[in-house]
Amino acid sequence: MTPMDAFVARTNIVRMRLQLATSMDAETQTTLQKLLELQLETLRAGETEEDLTPD
Question: I need a surface site. Which of 17, 29, 43, 54 has the fewest CB within 10 A?
Fold first, then answer.
């Protein structure tokens, strides 16, 4: 994961958290929560990949 990819992932996470906090619809909240979890997994996997990649 490039630094730009990580930045985009972190930005998406913040945006989704804000949407979750302001959403009144339970269905929308469930969908956003799932998307947030997937984005967090992607970011963690990318950071782990970076840790394993030699410089």
Answer: 54
